Backbone:
C-alpha cells in the first residue's frame, strides 16, 4: 500500500508582503527542508511599487536534518519564480513536485532522524 503524500498548501507559506520585509521563510515537510525568499532579500515593504526594482521568488529544498547554513550546497536544489501571486502558486506547486518526485529520499532521511 502506497503512503498518502501530504502536500504543502499555498496558504502555509505566508503572503507576499511577508517576503517584502527581507526575511526568508524556512520550513520542513516530512523529510524535506525548504527556504523561500524574495531575491534580492531587501526590506521593500514601505517602498513605492515603482521603486522596488525587479525581484523573484527563490525556493530551495534540501534533506533533513541540517539547517540551511549547515547543509552542503551540493545537497540543495534551487528554482526561481516571478515575484507575484501566480509565481507564489508556482513556487508551492514546485515544492510539492519536489516532495512527490523525491518521496523515497525524504522518507529515508525521516527514518534516520
Residues:
Amino acid at each position: 500500500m502506497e503512503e498518502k503524500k501530504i502536500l504543502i498548501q499555498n496558504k502555509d507559506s505566508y503572503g507576499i508582503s511577508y517576503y517584502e520585509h527581507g526575511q526568508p521563510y524556512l520550513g520542513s515537510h516530512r523529510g524535506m527542508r525548504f527556504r523561500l525568499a524574495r531575491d534580492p532579500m531587501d526590506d521593500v515593504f514601505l517602498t513605492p511599487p515603482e521603486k522596488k526594482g525587479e525581484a523573484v521568488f527563490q525556493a530551495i529544498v534540501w534533506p533533513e536534518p541540517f539547517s540551511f547554513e549547515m547543509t552542503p550546497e551540493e545537497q540543495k536544489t534551487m528554482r526561481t519564480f516571478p515575484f507575484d501571486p501566480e509565481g507564489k502558486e508556482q513556487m508551492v506547486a514546485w515544492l510539492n513536485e519536489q516532495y512527490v518526485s523525491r518521496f523515497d529520499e525524504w522518507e529515508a532521511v525521516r527514518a534516520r532522524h
